[in-house]
């Protein structure tokens, strides 16, 4: 019996060894890709390629890419590997501009796979080609400055509620987790604007909607498996029929949108929010009113959003809107707590401007705060919420002024975090200095070394909304309270290793105190 057991174990070890050898040969063949292209590249490590540290959780992916950026510096671009998948890292700002703008139609798609069978995946963030283009045209008018003014009152109301909810903790000088505080505020704003519902996360932090928001960005085993398989070959996700996190929560959000739309239409209810604009796109195909005889309807105008397409846009508006703005707010408060001189200067500006507007946080008052704009810009420079831009080459492409020809399907990475922390462009990059964004200093820098919202035709469509929401939140907090470090505060933050959004691993704990304004 022992003989058979030993024989079985030997055969298993031999089989496993053969599998490992086969994988090594398979990967090693792929690892010659950039060498054959005669492109500069970083040596990969089997089987991780160049992402070992981030995959095992030693550091975040943005820092992995920033490290690759530093090693490739001196070259205009260079090759790395996500497991066995060749990826081009773009270093030169002029080449970045070419890929994002001049040659955009060769790089208009993101690398994220689209599950055609999942309705909630049919949103602007991941759609490709003509589907993306016609949807972008439809949605662009919903994010104009005029539409932001219409939605502003919702932000202002949520900001005031946040101030009220913080009054007692601030009076006691309590320690507040700023990332959670900011996420509750932005959840309230986006839930109201995107879904037309009042959730009041400030008073009820465990409400159902806030829990679903956490779940969207949870880094569970399923998400980790998705990341691993997608890094090797995105098509394997479809072949293996592995569900994404979106599929798990799809039914909830789609049901909510169907109920909201049905209720508004049956009761003839209209609101000044994003959902109302989506309903217009569903029923009329456009958010712009047109005078009779002045506009000839095109095929694009005639196309109307289905209820599932409305749900998909509302979902991604919520997911992208609450998380990116809340992280920006919390990082800004972290830096202001450690730079009381900058905090005091910003509060002086806020007090002065609000005094001119009868103490009210209005669209015009927010637009009249240049130092606030600098503080937010420097926060997004040091802590870009989306620290890596990715694209896919959708046709053979010869890199300008080189002999390297990219194959169709090649992945492209633009290391935003690396660019934002390059001392060539931002001397002493770890120092928080809002004056980097004075008109004089901005004019001296290449315009493509600051990319918190991307650039070109596929830049962040919700940039105005995100900036406005962040500024309203900060203005409401800083006009009433001051933030200070405490014994729980971590000065030098580390980041969640497997999060697609730049997030503090330890949270951001700060003490909140009421201001004694003269």
Q: What does this 3D model show about the protein?
A:
There is one protein chain. This protein is α+β, with helices and mostly antiparallel strands. The protein has a domain at 115-289 and 298-387 and 426-514: Cytochrome P450 (Cytochrome p450), CATH 1.10.630. It has 21 helices and nine strands. Helix 7 (145-171) packs parallel to helix 21, helix 8 runs antiparallel to helix 15 and helix 13 runs antiparallel to helix 15. It is globular and about 70 Å long. It starts with a helix and ends with a strand.
Please tag this protein with its features.
518 residues; alpha+beta; Cytochrome p450; three-stranded antiparallel beta sheet
Helix content: 40-55%
* Number of E strands: 9
Tertiary shape: globular
Order of helices and strands: HHHHEEHHHEHHHHHHHHHHHEEEEHHHEE
The CATH superfamily of the domain at 115-289 and 298-387 and 426-514 is identified as Cytochrome P450
Order the strands across the largest sheet as they lie in space: 1-2-7-4
Strand count, sense and closure of the main sheet? 4 strands, mixed
Strand content: 5-15%
Secondary structure class reads alpha+beta
CA radius of gyration is 25 Å
CATH class of the domain at 115-289 and 298-387 and 426-514: Mainly Alpha
Instruction: Provide a count of the helices.
Output: 21
Poorly predicted runs: 291-297
Assembly annotation: single chain
Instruction: Report mean pLDDT, rounded to a whole number.
Output: 87
Q: Alpha-carbon distance between the termini? A: 89 Å
How does CATH name the architecture of the domain at 115-289 and 298-387 and 426-514? Orthogonal Bundle
Q: In the CATH scheme, what's the topology name of the domain at 115-289 and 298-387 and 426-514?
A: Cytochrome p450
């Amino acid at each position: 019996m022992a003989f058979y057991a030993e024989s079985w174990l030997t055969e298993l070890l031999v089989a496993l060894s053969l599998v490992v050898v086969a994988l090594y040969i398979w990967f090693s063949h792929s690892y010659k890709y950039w060498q054959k292209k005669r492109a500069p590249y970083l040596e990969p490590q089997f089987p991780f390629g160049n992402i070992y540290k981030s995959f095992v959780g030693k550091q975040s992916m943005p820092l992995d890419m920033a490290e690759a950026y530093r090693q490739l510096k001196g070259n205009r671009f260079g090759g790395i590997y996500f497991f066995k998948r060749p990826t081009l890292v773009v270093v030169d700002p002029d080449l970045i501009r070419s890929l994002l703008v001049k040659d955009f139609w060769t790089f208009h798609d993101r690398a994220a796979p689209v599950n055609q069978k999942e309705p909630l995946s049919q949103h602007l963030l991941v759609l490709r080609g003509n589907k993306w283009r016609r949807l972008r045209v439809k949605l662009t008018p919903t994010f104009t400055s005029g539409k932001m003014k219409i939605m502003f009152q919702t932000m202002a109301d949520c900001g005031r509620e946040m101030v009220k909810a913080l009054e007692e903790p601030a009076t006691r000088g309590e320690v507040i987790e700023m990332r959670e505080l900011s996420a509750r505020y932005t959840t309230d704003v986006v839930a109201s604007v995107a879904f037309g519902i009042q959730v009041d996360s400030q008073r009820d932090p465990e409400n159902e909607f806030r829990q679903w928001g956490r779940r969207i960005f949870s880094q569970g085993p399923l998400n980790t498996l998705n990341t691993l398989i997608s890094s090797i070959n995105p098509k394997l996700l479809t072949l293996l029929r592995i569900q994404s996190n979106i599929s798990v929560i799809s039914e909830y959000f789609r049901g909510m949108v169907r109920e909201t739309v049905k209720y508004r239409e049956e009761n003839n209810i209209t609101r000044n929010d994003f959902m109302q604009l989506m309903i217009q796109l569903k029923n009329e195909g456009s958010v712009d009113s047109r005078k009779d005889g002045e506009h000839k309807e095109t095929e694009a105008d005639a196309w109307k959003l289905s209820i599932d397409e409305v749900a998909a846009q509302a979902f991604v508006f919520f997911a992208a809107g609450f998380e990116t703005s809340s992280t920006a707010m919390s990082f800004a408060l972290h830096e202001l707590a450690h730079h009381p001189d900058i905090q005091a200067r910003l509060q002086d500006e806020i007090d002065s401007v609000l005094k001119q507007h009868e103490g009210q946080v209005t669209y015009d008052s927010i637009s009249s705060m240049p130092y606030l704009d600098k503080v937010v810009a420097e926060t997004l420079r040091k802590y870009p919420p989306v620290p890596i831009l990715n694209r896919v080459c959708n046709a053979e492409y010869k890199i300008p002024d080189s002999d390297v020809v990219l194959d169709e399907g090649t992945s492209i990475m633009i290391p935003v975090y690396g660019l934002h922390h390059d001392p060539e462009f931002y001397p002493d990059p770890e120092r928080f200095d809002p004056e980097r964004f004075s008109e004089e200093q901005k004019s001296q820098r290449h315009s493509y070394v600051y990319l918190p919202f991307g650039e070109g035709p596929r830049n962040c469509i919700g940039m105005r909304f995100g900036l406005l929401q962040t500024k309203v939140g900060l203005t409401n907090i800083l006009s009433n309270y001051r933030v200070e470090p405490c014994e729980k505060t971590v000065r030098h933050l580390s980041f969640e290793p497997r999060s697609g959004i730049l997030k503090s691993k330890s949270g951001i704990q700060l003490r909140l105190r009421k201001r004694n304004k003269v």
